[in-house]
Structures are given as C-alpha cells and as structure tokens.
Design goal:
Number of helices: 4
Largest sheet: none
Number of strands: 0
Number of domains: 1
Shape: elongated
Length: 116
C-alpha cells in the first residue's frame, strides 16, 4: 500500500514538473512569436513547418525536463531505489540534442521571418 501511494505522489510530481516547464516555455515562446507577428504571419498556410516548429520545441523541452528530473528531482520518491541519476555522458547527449532541437525550431522560425 505504501509503495502505491508513493508511486501516485511520484506521478503527480512528474505531472507538475512537466506542467510548469511547458507553461513557462510556452509563455516565453508565445511572446517571441507574437513579437514577430504571430504564427499566421510567419508560417502562412504551411502546416508542415508549423508542425515541425512545435514538435522540435516540445522534444527539446521534454529532453531538458528529463535531465532535470532524473538528476536533480529524483533524490527521493518511489523510483529513486530503482533508477539512479543519468550518466554524465548520457546527460551531455540529451542536453545537446534538446538544445539543438530548440535552436533548430527557432532557426526555422527566424529563417521564415527573414526570408518571407
């Protein structure tokens, strides 16, 4: 019973971390997009570019949250005894891929702003 309750609290904690990370990032992202005229002004009718833009951003943020959770937030809880922190080599790989995804999404965005 105790493991079930701690598992439920662990899931709730993960949901809150994801929620606040995604809300914070989406607020910053919407301010940047609105500054340049909104998604309709930049992307036009190109649903494919819009999808790639937001997909790359979501993957980047989820990678950053994964590193944050596994290495910083997982000192206690239900899964702490089953999974330790990520290895430094894995952390560097996830951080590089996540930052590259976010930079690539803004590369698409600013490329369209400059050349549209």
């Amino acid at each position: 019973m105790k493991d079930t309750v701690t598992f439920i609290f662990e899931v709730i904690r993960i949901i809150f971390i994801l929620f606040f990370a995604l809300v914070g990032y989406s607020i910053i992202n919407s301010l940047i997009i609105d500054f340049f005229g909104g998604t309709d002004a930049v992307f036009g009718d190109s649903e494919m570019l819009r999808t790639w833009f937001f997909l790359l951003q979501a993957l980047g943020v989820l990678g950053l949250v994964t590193v944050l959770y596994r290495n910083k937030q997982k000192k206690s809880g239900w899964m702490a005894k089953y999974q330790g922190p990520l290895q430094p080599k894995t952390v560097r790989l996830i951080l590089r891929v996540s930052i590259a995804a976010i930079v690539a999404s803004y590369g698409i965005f600013f490329g369209l702003v400059l050349f549209a």
